[in-house]
Amino acid sequence: MGQRVRIGQAVAAGATGQELELRGWVRTVRTGKEVTFIVLNDGSSLSGIQVVVSPGLANYEEVSRTGTGSALVVRGTLQPSPAAGQAVELHATAVEVVGPSDESYPLQKKRHTFEYLRTIAHLRPRTNTLGAVFRVRSFLAQAIHRFFAERGFLYVHTPIVTANDCEGAGELFRVTTLDPEQVPRTEGGVDYGADFFGQATGLTVSGQLEGELFAQAFTDIYTFGPTFRAENSNTARHAAEFWMIEPEMAFADLMDDARLAEAFLRYLCRQVLDGCGEDLEFFNRQIDPGLIQRIEAVASTPFAVMEYTEAVERLQKADVAFAYPVQWGLDLQTEHERYLTEQLVGGPLFVVNYPKEIKAFYMRQNGDGRTVAAMDLLVPKVGEIIGGSQREERYDLLFRRMEETGIAPDALWWYLDSRRWGSTPHAGFGLGFERLIMYLTGMENIRDVIPFPRTPRHAEF
Ligand code: 4AD
Ligand code: MG
Question: How many CB atoms are located within 10 Å of the residue 168 CB?
Answer without folding.
Answer: 16
